[in-house]
Design a protein that fits this description.
By secondary structure, this protein is an alpha/beta fold. Helices cover about 35% and strands about 15% of the residues. The protein contains 20 helices and 22 strands. The strands form seven sheets. Strands 2, 3, 4, 5, 6 and 18 form a six-stranded mixed β-sheet that branches. A five-stranded parallel β-sheet has the order 8-17-9-10-13, with helices on one face. Strand 4 and strand 5 form a beta hairpin. The longest helix is centred in the middle third of the chain and has 26 residues. About 45% of the residues are buried. The N terminus is likely disordered. Bound molecules: NADPH dihydro-nicotinamide-adenine-dinucleotide phosphate (NDP). NADPH dihydro-nicotinamide-adenine-dinucleotide phosphate binds next to helix 9.
């Protein structure tokens, strides 16, 4: 049974007046339609036979001699993780930090993703790292890509990270030399150098993927992935200059995730004809971007301001999710889409009499809050999109956090343009690419250019995505060590891999609503640990077996999993595949990100580095 296109609100059916059971049925139906046996295997990498399309379109690769020296710290990845770690190390007096990145400059995701309209929809005040340290005032509540990329360069300059950096360089091997207590690093540029410490922080979404549909290599027109935008073909630039190369072109966009939501409005303005191929609609809420006022900023930017904002965001976002008894509303400094969601949950719980704030009733309140939000998001589609059939197809039928929530004030509006056509595939996706176009539901759409907004690898093994497989003590490979699931202490240290830091989300804070916070916090721990080793003239550290085992036991017993198998498939839930035994290790600290950050702050302040073993000296 399907719900009517325009939702009926039948009084008395739920606390929020929405038919909860009908929604559950519709959500399950839509999910089942999209489940497929091949999961992640449906995709192909933008590599190998597509290597030409994977090359850097933004900066030419400069020739250089291979490097064969020794540095104190090598960090793999020049995005927010590498920059924040590099900055904290510089502050701690460690100056010979070498950041290595396959890109031509710092920036990570913001280096590659320069598609028109790129911006961040987590508030800049908490998303952009080291604002206080650099003195940069974000120009908008949600900064655009070029400003974020410039900020990355600012951090690189301010902390002296350029001098030692190796760009357009991919690490191909990483081996621990026990005798010298050094990591030996090999790269695709012939480098072979050593480092006392290594950090790995390549981000969760750095390997672009394409739909592995038949004919994908056959297209004779022009094509590119959104993370390799070809401005030479489209005209324009990342700052919003018109894409005048597309004026007479027929363009297909494949995918309707967070990236497409941002670039479709720009393409719609400039293409001759635009065909947007949709498998699953995104939820697109109001964005409400605005400039940040200099006077206002000067007033709030008192010492310690960014940490206060970060703490406030974390508290607002997850407080109620972890402790539903906490219905009091803390001040919400950030006021973005994420904290709005938490605010609504809190209001619903506050309306429940205290004796009813338990178990099933709370889960139902969460569901009702979600139903109300998603109903409003669907109603927004009707309010914005003039053609009722197109509007019906643009409506998302799943709970809001099943997929990356999107926020935009021009995406839905784009479908009112006569040149912009939604090709909805009813959950099936495009079938085939031909020499001349894209096929969906048996019909070919001839186009001049295909833009793949098809996302990035996620559920594959860490070492597979990294492109190298660290060999720790006695040659133990990280892939072998994690064959039955990831094992770390605090998500940062791994037994058998001395002097190695894993700067990532899992088994730590796992704060997915604002990824840079995870890195900012990890950077402090990295700097404190390195300083400790250097100050005491030690050689190496690694986690104790007992401490790591206890951490894993805690996570497995009570950790918070990422994504729900009940959701519509996507990278949040491993494409809807049943979670295997390894999945239970992909969790965050059970008491939440805020509690994790406090715990690590205390750990650093104690200066005893409990759980780590130090050798040498
Ligand atoms: P996503 O993985 O979110 O989206 C990929 C899209 O491709 C989906 O719509 C997917 O459909 C679609 N797709 C895949 N295969 C096919 C097919 N055969 N036919 C038709 N469609 C297909 O990638 P994005 O690049 O959009 O976003 C990745 C992440 O990057 C986001 O989730 C977010 O975390 C981050 N991001 C953040 C932004 C921000 O801050 N504003 C902006 C952009 C990205 P289906 O949903 O059915 O799988």
């Amino acid at each position: 049974m399907c719900l009517a296109t325009r939702e009926e609100v039948r009084p008395g059916m739920t606390d929020t007046g929405i038919d909860r059971d009908a929604l559950r049925r519709r959500y399950a139906e839509e999910r089942d339609k999209r489940l497929r046996a091949d999961g992640n295997a449906q995709y192909v990498r933008l590599a190998d036979r597509f290597a030409e399309a994977a090359r850097d379109p933004y900066l030419p690769m400069a020739e250089r001699e291979p490097v064969r020296d020794d540095v104190t710290f090598a960090f793999i990845g020049g995005g927010f993780a590498g920059l924040t770690v590099g900055a904290r190390l510089a502050e701690a007096g460690v100056r010979d930090v070498r950041i290595i990145d396959k890109a031509g400059d710092f920036g990570g995701t913001w280096y590659w993703n320069r598609y028109p309209g790129a911006m961040c929809d987590t508030a800049s005040m908490v998303y952009m790292p080291l604002l206080e340290e650099t003195g940069h005032r974000p120009t908008e509540k949600y900064a655009h890509g070029p400003e974020i990329l410039a900020h990355c360069r600012r951090i690189g300059e301010q902390y002296g990270l350029y001098g030692n950096a190796l760009f357009h360089t991919e690490v191909t091997s990483l081996e621990w030399d026990e005798v010298r207590a050094r990591w030996v690093i090999g790269t695709d540029r012939g480098d072979r150098f050593t480092a006392r410490f290594v950090g790995m922080g390549t981000g969760p979404l750095h390997v672009a993927k394409l739909p592995g549909v038949p004919g994908i290599a056959d297209f004779a027109g022009h094509w590119f992935h959104t993370s390799r935008w070809d401005y030479a073909y489209t005209g324009g630039d990342p700052s919003g200059a018109p894409l005048d190369g597309l004026a007479d072109r027929r363009v297909a966009v494949i995918g309707t995730g967070a990236t497409a939501v941002q670039c479709v409005p720009e393409l719609a303005k400039h293409c001759g004809e635009l065909y947007v191929f949709q498998r699953t609609p995104s939820s697109v809420d109001v964005r409400g971007n605005r400039p940040l006022d200099a006077g206002w900023f000067a007033g709030i930017a008192t010492p310690g301001w960014q940490q206060r904002w970060l703490d406030n965001f974390t508290e607002n976002w997850e407080g109620v999710l972890l402790d539903p008894a906490r219905t009091a509303q803390p001040d919400d400094l950030v006021q973005d889409g994420w904290t709005d969601l938490a605010r609504r949950l809190r209001a619903l719980l506050a309306a429940l009499p205290p004796e009813e704030r338990t178990g099933a009733r709370i889960l139902r309140a969460f569901e009702d809050a979600d139903n109300a939000k998603m109903t409003a998001i669907r109603a927004r589609v009707d309010a914005v999109v003039r053609d009722p059939e197109t509007a019906a197809r643009l409506k998302p039928w799943y709970r809001q956090l099943c997929k990356r929530p999107c926020f935009h004030d021009a995406y839905l509006q784009a479908f009112n343009r006569p040149n912009t056509h939604l090709v909805d595939t009813d959950g099936k996706g495009v079938e085939r690419i031909t020499e001349t176009g894209v096929v969906a539901a048996g019909r070919e759409y001839p186009v001049d250019c295909i833009v793949y907004a098809s996302g990035f690898e996620f559920g594959t093994d860490y070492t597979e995505r990294a492109g190298y497989d660290p060999a720790g003590r006695d040659g133990l490979r990280l892939s072998a060590y994690w064959a039955d699931g990831m094992r770390t202490l605090y998500g940062l240290f791994a037994r058998g891999f001395p002097n190695l830091f894993l700067v990532q989300l899992g088994q730590g804070a796992n704060l997915v609503s604002n990824v840079p916070t995870n890195y900012a916090e990890a950077a402090k721990t990295v700097a404190a640990t390195v300083r400790h080793v250097l100050d005491r003239g030690l050689a190496a550290f690694e986690p104790d077996q007992a401490a790591q085992d206890a951490w894993i036991d805690l996570l497995v017993a009570r950790g918070r999993p990422f994504g729900s198998p009940d959701c519509t498939p996507g990278y949040y839930n491993n494409e809807g595949q049943a979670p295997g035994p390894r999945q239970r290790f992909n969790v965050g600290y059970p008491d939440g990100a805020g509690a994790f950050f406090v715990m690590m702050e205390r750990w650093r302040a104690a200066g005893t580095f409990d759980g780590l073993t130090f050798t040498g000296g």
